[in-house]
Amino acid sequence: MYKLLLITDRTEILQIYANLDIWAEMGFRTPRMAASVDEGLDILSRHFADAVAIELSEPERDRLYDALNAQYPALPVMTAGETPDEVTRNLKELRHLLNQLNADYSNDRYDPAEKMQLRRHAFFRKLLEGSFTDEGQIRRELRLLRSRMDPDRPCVVMRMETPTESGYLAEHWQYGQDRLEVAMRNIFGAELEGMRILVSALEDERLYLVACPMKGCAGPSSDASMTRLVHEHTQESIDHVKEYLGMDLRIGAEAVLPSIVQLAGLQL
């Protein structure tokens, strides 16, 4: 069973968790509970946790995230929830993630940070494919996955085009979609001027590049400067794709979105 730590400075949420009796059926042990950030960090230093659930005032939340980023960067963070139904819903989403993180799909060895990174890439792929449409769920998933991409700031998205409408990538790449995405991430992926840049390869051969300012980073001063920086980086990366992979790509379309939440089912 999974181990959960609740950290909240709200007594009503502590009471909700104390009164719930769903833990075993949800696959969790009865959680440890902390009424302050300091108490929660002390518990984490002494006891293993698969995830933390939090509900804190903004200054304390920021202080907790600073500590978690420094000491536990791959630890899933769940929104605690303010009603029993919200807690149950959030636990189901957390359990789904923990099952994926702990699944043994092969003999390959991944550390927790690598596993979390793979789940983040899978999430953004599904987001672009339209598997997630609810803003609240998208924000909860970003929090669970410890994404540094800020959902409250504009982002740039670019769609790559190939010389032919369909079949080009299959003809020029024999190793499957997953390995194609890894190759593209190795070339396009970067942290640039406070932005995180990632690439998603969808099953229908669409290739998207997304650039979003990271939490705690200033980022470019305007949408125009952000677009210019991303465009330059993308074009340089396209040249590397041609040089190292022998594939012709070009920027087919680009847009500035108010938030990465608007990536859901994007048709660009």
Commentary on this structure:
It is a single chain. With 268 residues, the protein is of the alpha/beta class. It folds into 2 domains: 4-103, Response regulator (Rossmann fold), CATH 3.40.50.2300; 144-263, Alpha-Beta Plaits (2-Layer Sandwich). It has helices spanning 11-19, 23-26, 37-46, 58-71, 84-101, 112-129, 135-144, 168-172, 176-188, 223-245; strands at residues 4-8, 32-34, 51-55, 77-79, 155-161, 190-192, 195-201, 207-213, 250-257. A hairpin with a 2-residue loop joins strand 6 (190-192) and strand 7 (195-201). The longest helix is centred in the last third of the chain and has 23 residues, at 223-245. The mean pLDDT is 92.
Shape: elongated
**Roughly what fraction of the amino acids lie in strands?**
15-25%
The CATH architecture of the largest domain can be named as 2-Layer Sandwich
Q: What is the total number of structural domains? A: 2
Please report the total strand number as a whole number: 9
pLDDT below 50 for ≥5 consecutive residues: which ranges?
A: none
| Radius of gyration, taken over Cα atoms and rounded to an integer in Å | 20 Å
Helical percentage: 40-55%
Please give the largest β-sheet. Answer: 5 strands, antiparallel
Rounded mean pLDDT is: 92
Strand adjacency order, main sheet: 6-7-8-5-9
What's the level 1 CATH class of the largest domain? Answer: Alpha Beta
The helix-and-strand class reads alpha/beta
